[in-house]
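Last lecture ended with a question: if I hand you only a sequence, what can you say about the shape of the protein? Today we answer it with a concrete record. The protein is Thyrotropin subunit beta. Below, first the input exactly as provided, then the predicted structure, then a couple of comments.
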Amino acid sequence: MSPFFVMSLLFGLTFDQTASLCTPSEYIIHVEKRECAYCLAINTTICAGFCMTRDSNGKKLLLKSALSQNVCTYKEMLYQTALIPGCPHHTIPYYSYPVAVSCKCGKCNTDYSDCVHEKVRTNYCTKPQKLCNM
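The predicted structure:
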């Protein structure tokens, strides 16, 4: 093997973030309330991508904390609020959502992330749609 390849491999194993493709990605959230006349399509950013993980062959010999896998998650985020159009006066017409500013590979924090991969998820409107560009 060439010395360059060996050095690159060692550097990549030492700093596994360099091989990660975990970045803020554009995403559209569809929001609707039963009482409101419209569905709101919100353009935002979420953390998505690939994180280096290692699967140990000695799972029975290691502590469960040593087996956790890294996921692409928020490093910095902020919340924005959108107004859902067509809501009656007795309904709260606001929807707050996270916007990814920067991302990292790390352990999934259930305080602000859904760490479970759902098999089937629909993200669509059943009412007339309004687009919200934030």
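Comments.
1. Helices lie at 3-14.
2. The two ends are 51 Å apart (CA to CA).
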